[in-house]
């Protein structure tokens, strides 16, 4: 094997393993397009991209087995299928012309950032922006793209400068909270079977936790409220008479379908629909049982004159939901998740790292309501 090819393979694998749940390591993702840029053929570009995405999403194997209560075959199949699609994008757009290759690599970044392909756009290099350019906002997005371009032209020199930038960026303070907002972390076990009795006892516990908080706004984990019904709404409004707004992760059913949503218990209204549920496990467009995707709806919710950007679980790992919400200049970024199916994998840490990166990039305080 050519020595340079071996080095590129090693780089691709190493960059994939940098998706390990450590926020600072997200910065390494900007080097992924550089590895593809220096590949010597379309086949090599495909294999390098596939290695990167497979290593970055290694937690999907065990996570899928847990979620579907299935065997290894299904877990490996889900792990490979989405990554094949992403790798094909980079392979198809690879070209022998180095000048055109730069343009087409940026096109690949764009295609994997926005739907429909962006619906599986995990491990995207743009998530590095908040690590390298905290507080820069949209300028940080453009600077990250410029950095990728410079890395293609001067990889060694610019990589060294990037490492220095990441080091000094760690001294940037976390965004200060503008509103009294707290997130609650829980450790409940869920499964695919609906158990209304367990939902009821869990919500009793959550009411007690909410009452202990002095915050005006309280964020609870994804699906913590079970199915949103009139009874659920009435229970929360009668149990919590403190005047607080509790944002409750719920499953909503209406005449148009099934939604992964967030309800405000004070107003009794659904205030957010998830724009991109997790493909295959939740988002199955071919099935009537699928959770609906609202790709470009409700970027920001207004509660008591405060603008809150919500991201549910998987959305913190994608590009367009975060940019869509953060473009509305919210007062807070509220991220919920329910990772019962991903315990002992890299997935929860990666999701939270993505949320931290978006928060720091736009200097918007982050609140997380997580179950794991």
Percent of residues in helices comes to 40-55%
CATH topology of the largest domain: Nitrilase/N-carbamoyl-D-aminoacid amidohydrolase
Total number of distinct structural domains: 2
Q: Architecture of the largest domain, CATH level 2?
A: 4-Layer Sandwich
Mean pLDDT: 91
Identify the strand order in the major beta sheet: 1-2-3-4-5
The helix/strand class is: alpha/beta
| End-to-end CA span | 43 Å
- Low-pLDDT parts are none
CATH uppermost class of the largest domain: Alpha Beta
Whole-angstrom Rg: 21 Å
3D architecture notes:
The protein has 372 residues and is an alpha/beta fold. The protein has 2 domains: 3-169; 181-371, 4-Layer Sandwich (Nitrilase/N-carbamoyl-D-aminoacid amidohydrolase), CATH 3.60.110. The protein contains 13 helices and 9 strands. The chain has helices at residues 3-17, 32-37, 42-56, 59-68, 72-92, 98-111, 129-132, 138-153, 155-169, 196-212, 230-239, 320-326, 347-361; strands spanning 181-183, 217-219, 245-254, 257-264, 269-273, 301-303, 306-312, 332-338, 366-371. The strands form 2 sheets. It has a 5-stranded mixed beta sheet with strand order 1-2-3-4-5, with no helix packed on it. α13 links the parallel β8 and β9. The longest helix is centred in the N-terminal third of the chain and has 21 residues, at 72-92. The protein is globular, with a radius of gyration of 21 Å.
Overview features:
single chain; globular; alpha/beta; Nitrilase/N-carbamoyl-D-aminoacid amidohydrolase; 4-stranded mixed sheet; 372 residues
């Amino acid at each position: 094997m050519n020595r340079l090819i071996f080095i590129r393979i090693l780089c691709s694998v190493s960059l994939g393993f940098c998706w390990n749940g450590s926020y600072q390591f997200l910065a390494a993702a900007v080097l992924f397009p550089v590895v593809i840029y220096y590949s010597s053929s379309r086949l090599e570009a495909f294999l390098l991209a596939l290695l990167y995405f497979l290593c970055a999403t290694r937690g999907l194997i065990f996570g899928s087995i847990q979620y579907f209560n299935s065997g290894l075959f299904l877990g490996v199949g889900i792990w490979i299928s989405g990554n094949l699609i992403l790798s094909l994008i980079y392979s198809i757009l690879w070209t022998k012309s180095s000048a055109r290759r730069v343009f087409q690599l940026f096109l690949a970044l764009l295609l994997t950032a926005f739907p429909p392909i962006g619906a599986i756009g995990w491990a995207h290099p743009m998530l590095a922006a908040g690590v390298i350019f905290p507080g820069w906002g949209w300028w940080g997005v453009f600077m990250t793209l410029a950095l990728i371009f410079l890395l293609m032209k001067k990889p060694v020199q610019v990589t060294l400068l990037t490492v220095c930038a990441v080091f000094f960026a760690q001294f940037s303070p976390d965004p200060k909270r503008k509103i009294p907002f707290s997130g609650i972390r829980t450790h409940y076990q869920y499964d695919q079977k609906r158990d209304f009795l367990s939902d009821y006892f869990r919500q009793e516990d959550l009411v007690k936790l909410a009452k202990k908080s002095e915050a005006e706004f309280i964020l609870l984990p994804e699906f913590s409220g079970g199915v949103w019904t009139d009874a659920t709404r009435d229970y929360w409004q009668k149990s919590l008479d403190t005047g607080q707004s509790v944002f409750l992760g719920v499953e909503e059913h209406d005449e148009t379908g099934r939604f992964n949503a967030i309800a405000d218990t004070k107003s009794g209204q659904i205030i957010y629909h998830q724009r991109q549920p997790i493909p295959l496990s939740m988002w199955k467009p071919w099935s009537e049982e699928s959770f609906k995707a609202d790709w470009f709806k409700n970027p920001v919710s207004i509660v008591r004159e405060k603008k809150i950007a919500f991201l549910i679980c998987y959305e913190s790992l994608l590009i367009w939901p975060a940019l869509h919400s953060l473009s509305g200049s919210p007062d807070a970024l509220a991220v919920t998740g329910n990772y019962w199916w991903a315990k002992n994998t890299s997935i929860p840490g990666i999701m939270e790292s993505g949320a931290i990166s978006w928060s720091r990039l736009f200097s918007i305080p982050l609140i997380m309501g997580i179950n794991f």
